[in-house]
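[job 0412] stage=fold_complex status=start
inputs:
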Amino acid sequence: GDSVTQMEGPVTLSEEAFLTINCTYTATGYPSLFWYVQYPGEGLQLLLKATKADDKGSNKGFEATYRKETTSFHLEKGSVQVSDSAVYFCALGGAGSYIPTFGRGTSLIVHP
Amino acid sequence: DGGITQSPKYLFRKEGQNVTLSCEQNLNHDAMYWYRQDPGQGLRLIYYSQIVNDFQKGDIAEGYSVSREKKESFPLTVTSAQKNPTAFYLCASSNGTAYTEAFFGQGTRLTVV
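[job 0412] stage=fold_complex status=done
writing structure:
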């Protein structure tokens, strides 16, 4: 079945550092890929998405590129802020099921 | 604005009681889901529904029940059979087709007292 693997956290960075959170997937065919963000005590919000190979999703300075050859969708940001501290979930929506498949989440802590 | 609303935000339950968590959406979505999230853990699927009057068990359905009498509503009941109900509960919806994203409510934090 479909699955998503994310790097374990927490990821701890200083403000203005470069961020990468790795995400790889296993799926039948060519799924859509998503990154969600969850701030403390809140639900998940869609951060960005990509629907086909080589697409780049971007939002609020975050980017991720759909790499079919490496089955990856790594999240990057050039300069993180304290307000980016949250849990980030990688997810896919595939042909096998309408139910989205989530990774375990990666906690990001940004220090001033 | 369209969205998905969960209530209440905080809920306290005495041992042996059943409690019901509300989830309402006005996105005209066919599919709805309930997830449980424990501290430092990912999302675990409790129940899901693709159409009215039909729902399926997820990975951790024991001790929970749901109904889907209306397209916009998908309440979750945490029964006394759920031995460890303290958790953060998230409701979500989607248009019920493959490749599409889910939309989440703000969550309900349930605590057993």
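[job 0412] summary: The longest strand of chain A covers residues 86-93.
[job 0412] exit 0
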